[in-house]
Fold this sequence. Notes:
4 copies of one chain form a homotetramer.
Chain A: E1 10-16, H1 21-31, E2 39-45, E3 53-58, H2 61-64, H3 67-72, E4 77-83, E5 98-102, E6 105-115, H4 118-127, H5 137-146, H6 153-160, E7 163-170, E8 175-179, E9 188-192, E10 195-199, H7 203-207, E11 211-215, E12 221-225, E13 228-232, E14 242-243, H8 244-250, E15 256-257, E16 260-261, H9 262-276, E17 283-286, H10 292-302, E18 310-312, H11 330-333, E19 336-338, H12 340-343, E20 347-352, H13 359-370, E21 375-380, H14 402-405, H15 408-415, E22 419-422, H16 425-432, E23 439-440, H17 442-445, H18 454-467
Helix pairs in contact in A: 4-5, 5-6, 9-10, 9-16
Bound molecules: adenosine-5'-diphosphate (4 copies), iron/sulfur cluster (SF4) (4 copies) and magnesium ion (MG) (4 copies).
Amino acid sequence: MKHHKPTHECGVFAVFGHPNAAVLTYYGLFALQHRGQESAGIVTATGPNTPFVRHVDMGLVSQVFKAEDLDRLKGTRAIGHVRYSTTGSSTLLNAQPLMFSTGRGQIAIGHNGNLVNAAVLRDELERRGSIFQTTVDSEIILHLLAQPNGTSSVLAGLRRIQGAYSLVIMGEREIIGVRDPFGFRPLSLGKLEGAWVLSSETCAFDLIHAEFVREIEPGEVVIIDENGVRSEFPFRQERRAFCMFEYVYFARPDSIISDINVARVRTAMGRELARLHPVEADLVVPVPDSGNYAALGFAEELNIPYNHAFVRNHYIGRTFLQPTQLIRDFNVRVKLNLIKEAVHGKRVVVVDDSIVRGTTARARVVNLREAGAKEVHMRISCPPHRHACHYGIDFPDPEKLIANQHTLEKIRDYLGADSIGYLDVPGMVRATGQDESKFCLACFNGKYPVPVDPNVDKFIMERRANRS
Amino acid sequence: MKHHKPTHECGVFAVFGHPNAAVLTYYGLFALQHRGQESAGIVTATGPNTPFVRHVDMGLVSQVFKAEDLDRLKGTRAIGHVRYSTTGSSTLLNAQPLMFSTGRGQIAIGHNGNLVNAAVLRDELERRGSIFQTTVDSEIILHLLAQPNGTSSVLAGLRRIQGAYSLVIMGEREIIGVRDPFGFRPLSLGKLEGAWVLSSETCAFDLIHAEFVREIEPGEVVIIDENGVRSEFPFRQERRAFCMFEYVYFARPDSIISDINVARVRTAMGRELARLHPVEADLVVPVPDSGNYAALGFAEELNIPYNHAFVRNHYIGRTFLQPTQLIRDFNVRVKLNLIKEAVHGKRVVVVDDSIVRGTTARARVVNLREAGAKEVHMRISCPPHRHACHYGIDFPDPEKLIANQHTLEKIRDYLGADSIGYLDVPGMVRATGQDESKFCLACFNGKYPVPVDPNVDKFIMERRANRS
Amino acid sequence: MKHHKPTHECGVFAVFGHPNAAVLTYYGLFALQHRGQESAGIVTATGPNTPFVRHVDMGLVSQVFKAEDLDRLKGTRAIGHVRYSTTGSSTLLNAQPLMFSTGRGQIAIGHNGNLVNAAVLRDELERRGSIFQTTVDSEIILHLLAQPNGTSSVLAGLRRIQGAYSLVIMGEREIIGVRDPFGFRPLSLGKLEGAWVLSSETCAFDLIHAEFVREIEPGEVVIIDENGVRSEFPFRQERRAFCMFEYVYFARPDSIISDINVARVRTAMGRELARLHPVEADLVVPVPDSGNYAALGFAEELNIPYNHAFVRNHYIGRTFLQPTQLIRDFNVRVKLNLIKEAVHGKRVVVVDDSIVRGTTARARVVNLREAGAKEVHMRISCPPHRHACHYGIDFPDPEKLIANQHTLEKIRDYLGADSIGYLDVPGMVRATGQDESKFCLACFNGKYPVPVDPNVDKFIMERRANRS
Amino acid sequence: MKHHKPTHECGVFAVFGHPNAAVLTYYGLFALQHRGQESAGIVTATGPNTPFVRHVDMGLVSQVFKAEDLDRLKGTRAIGHVRYSTTGSSTLLNAQPLMFSTGRGQIAIGHNGNLVNAAVLRDELERRGSIFQTTVDSEIILHLLAQPNGTSSVLAGLRRIQGAYSLVIMGEREIIGVRDPFGFRPLSLGKLEGAWVLSSETCAFDLIHAEFVREIEPGEVVIIDENGVRSEFPFRQERRAFCMFEYVYFARPDSIISDINVARVRTAMGRELARLHPVEADLVVPVPDSGNYAALGFAEELNIPYNHAFVRNHYIGRTFLQPTQLIRDFNVRVKLNLIKEAVHGKRVVVVDDSIVRGTTARARVVNLREAGAKEVHMRISCPPHRHACHYGIDFPDPEKLIANQHTLEKIRDYLGADSIGYLDVPGMVRATGQDESKFCLACFNGKYPVPVDPNVDKFIMERRANRS
Ligand SMILES: Nc1ncnc2c1ncn2[C@@H]1O[C@H](COP(=O)(O)OP(=O)(O)O)[C@@H](O)[C@H]1O
Ligand SMILES: Nc1ncnc2c1ncn2[C@@H]1O[C@H](COP(=O)(O)OP(=O)(O)O)[C@@H](O)[C@H]1O
Ligand SMILES: Nc1ncnc2c1ncn2[C@@H]1O[C@H](COP(=O)(O)OP(=O)(O)O)[C@@H](O)[C@H]1O
Ligand SMILES: Nc1ncnc2c1ncn2[C@@H]1O[C@H](COP(=O)(O)OP(=O)(O)O)[C@@H](O)[C@H]1O
Ligand code: SF4
Ligand code: SF4
Ligand code: SF4
Ligand code: SF4
Ligand SMILES: [Mg+2]
Ligand SMILES: [Mg+2]
Ligand SMILES: [Mg+2]
Ligand SMILES: [Mg+2]
C-alpha cells in the first residue's frame, strides 16, 4: 500500500492585517500560478476564537474562486497555496492549505517543498496514536506542531522535520513564515499599506503593488502578529542550498531571488553557454517561453539573429482532452507551432532551459528538420540532469532521465541534432554571480545537501505492509 | 468559537464479502435515505494492504453516486452512511464515512448517534496532541481507536465513549458493528449469498433481498472477517434505552425493530390514542405520511371514516428554493395540499405523530378551517415533547418546544383546534408490546438514561475560548 | 431520419399583471410538477418593446431555478412549462416555453397536448421556407402564428392545428390561453390580487392562494391584456372529448376538473369497481399513491379493512442510477416496499388505477405472494388499455399494452393473481357524474374523437427520407 | 428593443470524409482558439437521412468538449466554430454552428464575419413569416438558404447577403465553403489522408498534419461531396478587400495568408516603422505577444538591443474574477509584469501592434516610468484607428477610439510617452508585398468597400419598435 507520496513544487502566500486579505491572496496566488496548477486554496481568519474559513478546490486559481467564495473568506489574515502535481492520484483531500483544530486552537498550513524524513515521522506519529487523512507532508508538520512539548513547541516541532520547506502557518493569533535552514525554496517578505505579506516569489508583490522588504533567511522563522514582525532562528546552522533549478527554470523570470533578477540570470546563462559551445549559425530560436532569455543571451553573445520561430498557443492549459484517436505528437505540437519559412534553409540553434526525458526536445528537432532547417544545433542552459530531486521538484525517475542513461553523443543522436551543448556547473554558477557553495546542485552532480536514506523509508514501508 | 456541533440522526450500512459490495451499499443507503438527506458516502476495501476507496458528497444518495463513482468503489467490503443535518454549517468535510490512516493501518467509520462526552474526549485528545479536521463524533472515536493502548485497543477505545452510537467500522482485515450498551439506535445483521450485511434498519434488507438474521444486541461488538462473525460484549451492562421516537416517527414503517413491525406499533398507538381521547367526528385525516398509520388505527378504533384529505406533493425534496418574495406559509403548503370539499362541513379529526414547534400543526388547522371544516380535533400519537434529546435526534432547543412552554389548553388555543389530545406514556409503551424499562423516554419525561453534565462541557468550552 | 417525435404530457402556467410574475410561476410549476419532470422553463416580459427573458433547463423545477435565475426573470408577465418525456432523445433544445422573434415581435409559447397533423403542417411550412430547430409541436404553432395572413392571424394560425392542445402564449402586449375545441386537456383561469393566472390544474391556485375563477371552455381563446380578459371562440364547434385518463391517473387528486374534485371521482371509481367485481377478502391495499382513493372507495363499499401495506420511498426521483449489476426488480422494489406481516396469511385485494405493460403489477403480486398472502385479487379502477393515445399521453406501443395482446384470463395468469377485475366504461363514466359523450375514451374503446390518418404521416416521412 | 447584435470575429473549420471528423475538428478549433474564446461548437453528420449531431457550449474548446461529447459526435463530416464576443449579452442560444431542419433536409452553418444588410434581410424574412430564435447572422443566412427559390437556391440565397462572410455549411450530402466576393476574411482548403479540410487559418492544418492546398478565392463557393471538390463563382465580381487587421493583429503569426507568413509581414512592419520613426534608444521591448515580431523588426532595423522586459502570465484566460475590491489596474498588470531592472535608467522603445482606447498603452508607459526608464518611446505597427469596422471586428464605438478623438500630440501626452510613432498606410501595405487595392483599410482610412447605410437600419429598428 502506498501510504505516502511526496509532494512537489508549490507556491505559498500570506497576508496579515489587511481588510481584503482574501482578495490580496487571490491576486498573489494568481501571480504564483506557475508554481502549481493542480489545486488552489485560501484560509482566512479574523482573530482569536473566531472560526477560520477555508476554500480549496482542484483547478486553476481562476477556476477555484468565484465571487461568492471570496465573499465568504472574511478576515484580515489569510494564507494561500497553489499546488502542482503531475500524477493522477492527487485529490481534493490533499489540496492545501490544510486546516485543523488542535489543543492550541485552530491552525492552517501551506507548504512548498518536500520532507526527506516524512515516512519516519509519520510512522512515529502513527505509533503514538496520530491518525492521518491526507498524504501530504503538511499534515505531518501539523501533527508535530500539535504535540504537547511544553512552551516553545512550534519551534520544537519544526526542528523535527528535515528536507526542503518554505511554510506559511496561520494560528489563532499570528501568521508564521518558515524557511528551512538550507533555504531550498524561496520565500520573501513584503509590505502593503501597513499589512505584511509573504510570498514564494516577488513577482506576486508587483501585482498587488506591495513593497518587497527582504527575503526570509534560510532557517528563519518569521512571526507576524498584532505587535509586528519578529524573527527566530531555532535551527542549527547549515550550509546554504538554494535550488539552482529555480533560477534555471522554475521561478518566474520577473522575480528577484537573492537580489538578482531571474531573467538576468537566465540571459547570463545563455551567454555562458554561447562561450562554452559556440556555433556558426544563421538563426537562434528559443523554445518558448522557458528558453527565451537564454536564447537571447546566446544570440547576443555570438551576434546571431534571433527569432520567435516557435509560436506558443495561448490557450494551452493543463486540462485539454487528449482524444484516444490521437494525432501523432499532438500534445507536443499543440503547445508550439513552427513557422516553417522562418527556419527553412537555415542553420538553426535551438535553445531550451533543460532536457528531461528528451521526447519533447526530439519533437522540436524533427519539427525543424521537416521545415527544412539545414542544420539544427541544440543548446541547453543547464548541465545534464542525471539525478533525482528529493527536495520538491518532481522529476521522473532517474532511469527515465535521458542524461542519466546515455552519453552526450547518444543523446545528440536520439534527438537528431547536428550538435548538442549543455552549460556546465561553473558557467551556470557564474551566471548567478554567487558562490557555488550557496546552491543545491544535486540533480546535476548527485551531491545531496540533506541526506536521504532510502533504507529507512523502505524498512518502514515494509513494516507497514506487514503490520495489519 | 464553536469547535464542536453534535451530530444527528444518520443511517449506517455495511457489506462484507460480496463482489458488488459498493452497489449493495448504494441500494442499502437508498432504503435508509429517510435517516439522512444531507450527505452520503461509501468507503470500500479489497483486503489488507490495498488502499481504501472513498466517495462522499453532499446531497441525496441518488445525486451523490454516479455510475463512474460506483465503478471506482472497488472491493468486496464496504461501509456506507447517510447523514442528516438541519443546520447550514454542515459541510462536505463532516460527511461520513470518515477514513484515516493510523498506526494500525487504514480505518473508516460511520456513526449514528451522539456522544455525550464528546467535548471532554476531544479536549483530552487535543491536549495529548491529536488534531481534528472535522466536528463530528466519528473523528473522536477514530482517534480513540488509534491510541496505542496495547492489544485489545479497539475495545479499550470504545469503552471511553458515552452516549448513543451505532457504528460500522472498517479496518484492514474486518468490518465491525457496534451498538452502544443502552441500545439507543437500531442496528441489524443480515445475510445475502454468503455475504454479511449490517444496516440501521431492516427495510434495507428487503430491498436487496437479504435475509434478516437478527438485531445486534445493546453493548454487542460484532466482528466480521474472513473467518465469519463473532461477538464481544466489552461494556459494563447497562439498562436498556431504545429510542422510543424511532417507533413514533423516525424509523420507516416497513422496518422491524425488536421483532415488531413499526407500522403495527404506530397503528396500535392510534388505537390507544382513540381510547384515551375519543371524539365524535365525521372524518379522520392523517397528516401524511408520518401520521398515516396512527390515523388509520384511530379511525378503525372509533369506526370513523378515514380519508386522504391532505395530498402530498411527490417532488418535495429538501432543496427547493424559497424565494424571498415568499408566499405566506409556502413551505408548509407546498408539501401538503388540502382537498377542500373532502372536509367541508365536517367534524374532522387530524392525526399526526408529534408536535415540535407547533407552527406546522397550526398551519394544518388553519387550512382545515379555511376549507370549511365544522370542527377540528388534533390528535397526536405520542406524549408532549418537553425535553431535549442528547442522543442523536435533532430537536430545537427546549424553549422552542411548544409543550415545554405552554399548557395543553394554551397549545390548543394557539393551534386553533376545538380539542387536542396527546397519547400518554403508558399507552405509547403498551403499543410496543414491550416493557417501559426498555426505552429511552427522556424527551417526553426528562429522565435521561445517560447523564449529561452540561457544566463539564461548558467548562471545557470556556477554557478553549481563553486558551489561545 | 426521425424528424419529429410527438410531445407528451405537460403542464402550463401563466401570470399577467403581477410584480412577482416569475416567482408565482415558479410556485405554480412546483404544483404542476407531476405533469412533467423532464424539463422546466419560464419566460417573462415587462411590456411591449422590452426583451423577453427566458430560463429553461432539464430537470425538476427545484433544480432548474436558482435564486439568481428568478432574479433575472424580471417582469409582470410570465408563462411557464413543465415537460415530461420517457425517452432519452429529449434534449434541452426541446424544452419549453419556446421563444422566438417574429414579424409581430417577440412571442413565447408553452404547449400541453399533441397535434395530430404536425407532420403535414411541418412539411408544408418547410416547403414554404420555414426552418425548424426543435422537434416539438410548439414550434409548428409559432410558425403558423407568424405567417402573414392578414389581421386576425393568430386565430387563423390556430385554426390550422388539429389535435389536443392547451396553450399559453405570450406576445408583446398580451397573454393568450387556448384550449382546443375538443377540450382534451384541462386549463383554468384564476385571479390573485388583481393579476390573472392560467394553470393546467387548479391545485396550483391553492398553493399561491389564487382564487379559482372558472375553467377555460373547449375551443375558447382567452386574451389577457392591460384591458382585462376577453374571449374568442374561433373554432368550428366540436364534440367534447376531455381525456378520461386525467381523472383516472394523470391529474393530481386535489385538482378540480369540470367542477368535480379528482379524488372524489377516483373514490367513486373504487366503489363502482367494488360493485362490479366484489370479492370476499381480509384486506384492501392500494398501490400508492395513484391507487389510494380507488382502494379506499373499494374498501368502504365492501366494508373490508384498508391498510397501507405498501410503503412508498419518499426519495424516489426519476434520476436514480440503475447500476449495471442490477438487483432483480430493483426499480420496482425501490419505489414501494411491502410490510410483510401486514398481509401474511390474508386474502388481499390490491387496487391500482391502471395496468399498462403488466410488469409492475406482476411484481406487486409476486411481492404479496412471497410475503405469505393467502389470496391476491387484483382490481383496476379503469377498463383495460387496448389502444394508443394520439392526444398527448405517452403510452407504449399498442403491441406492448398487455390488454391489447391478451385475454383477461391470460393477464390474470401472467400476473399470478387469484382473480382480476377491471372497471368498465359505464362505471367509470358514472363515477364522474357526467355524460359519456363528454369524454375521450379512445385508449379504452378505440373511438378516436379526432381522426389520425397514419398514411398521411407515413407518406410525408418517406418523401422526406427520399428528398435530399 | 435590441433585436439584433452584430456578430464578431470567429473561426470556422470543416472536415469531409474522415472517420475521425469530430476529433480533427476539435484539434482544428484548438488551433483557431485565438479567433474566438466565448463559445465553441461542432456539428457532425454521417450521410443523408441520418440525424446531425450537435454539441455547442460557452467556453474554451478545452472546456466545451469532454471525451463523451466527442464520442457522441459520430460521423465522417463535421463543421466547427469558435466565437468571440466581448459583450455580456452573448448566450448559449447564439453559439454556433447553428443547426436547423428545412425543406431541403438538415442544415448547419458556421459563420465568420458580419452582414451589413442583416437588419433589412431579417425584417423582410419576418414579414414573410420567418421566426428567429437567435440574434446571429447565421440564422438569417439559413432562412435565405431555405427559401423555396427553385433549383439553385443556395446560390440565390447567398447572393442576397452583403458584407463580410467566410462560411462553412453542412447539408445532408455536402459541405460547402463560401468566401464573400470581397474576401474580407480568410478561408483555406487543406487535404489529409483523402479527406478535405476547410479552415479560417492555415495554422490549424499544421497541427493536424494536413497539407495546405490553397486559399479559397474571394467570391468562391466550394462544394465538397462524395464526388470531390468543385467550385462555383456565383457573385458579381467585386474589388478585393482583405482585412488588413488580420495581418496586423488578428491572425496567428504562424498562419499563411495570400502566400505570405503573417509573422514575416509583422516583422517587416516593424522595420518600416523603424525607418519612418527612428529613435535613439538603449532597448526595444515588445508588448507581448502581439507586439513581438514588429518589435524584433524594429530592433534589428535600428540595431538596438531587444529584450522581453514584459513577462506574460501564462494563466490568463478571459474568465478570471475581477473582485470588486479591485487593485488599481489589476486587469492590465495581471497579464504582463515588467522586469524593472531590465529597463531601469534606459531609453526604451516599446512596440505594440495597435492602440484602441489607449488605456492599456498608458498603463504600460506608467509601468516603464515607475521602473525608472529614462525615456519611453511608443511605436505602433499600424496607422491610427479612427473608424468603426462593419465587417466583423469588434472595435469600440469610434468616439471611444483615442485616435478618432485626439491629435497625435494629445495621445502622446495622454500616454505620458516621450515620443509616439504610428506606421503609415503605405508602409503597412509595403510590408505585405501586395497592392493597396487588395485590402480593406476602412478602420484606418474610412473608405468602406461595402457601403453601410445606417439610415436603412435605423428606419427598420424604429418600425420594429412601433410595430407591436
Ligand atoms: N512570459 C514568460 N517569458 C519567459 N519565461 C516565462 C514566462 N512565463 C513563465 N516563464 C518561465 O517558463 C516556465 C514555463 O516554461 P514553459 O516553457 O512555458 O513550459 P514548460 O514547463 O512546458 O517548459 C516558467 O516556470 C517560467 O520560469
Ligand atoms: N410511505 C410512508 N408511509 C407512511 N409513513 C412513512 C412513509 N415513508 C416514510 N414514513 C414515515 O414518515 C416519516 C417522514 O414523515 P413525513 O410526514 O413524510 O415528513 P415530516 O418529517 O415532514 O413529518 C419517516 O421518517 C417515516 O417514519
Ligand atoms: N399524494 C397523493 N395521493 C394520492 N395520489 C396522488 C398523490 N400525489 C399524486 N397522486 C396521483 O398519483 C399519480 C402518480 O402515481 P404514482 O403511483 O405515485 O406513480 P406512478 O406514476 O409510478 O404510478 C399522480 O399523477 C397523481 O394523480
Ligand atoms: N505566440 C505568439 N507569439 C506572438 N504573437 C502571438 C502569439 N500567439 C498569438 N499571437 C498574436 O497575438 C494576438 C494576441 O495578442 P496578445 O497581445 O496576446 O493579446 P491582446 O489581444 O490582449 O493584445 C493574436 O491574435 C496573435 O496574432
Ligand atoms: S536537486 Fe535540483 S531541483 Fe532539487 S532542489 Fe536541488 S537543484 Fe533544485
Ligand atoms: S430523548 Fe427522545 S428522541 Fe432522544 S433518544 Fe430518548 S426517546 Fe429518542
Ligand atoms: S386516448 Fe386515453 S389517454 Fe389519450 S386523451 Fe383519450 S382518454 Fe386520454
Ligand atoms: S475595417 Fe479594419 S478591421 Fe474591419 S475589415 Fe476593414 S481592415 Fe479589417
Ligand atoms: Mg519550456
Ligand atoms: Mg410528518
Ligand atoms: Mg401508481
Ligand atoms: Mg496585445
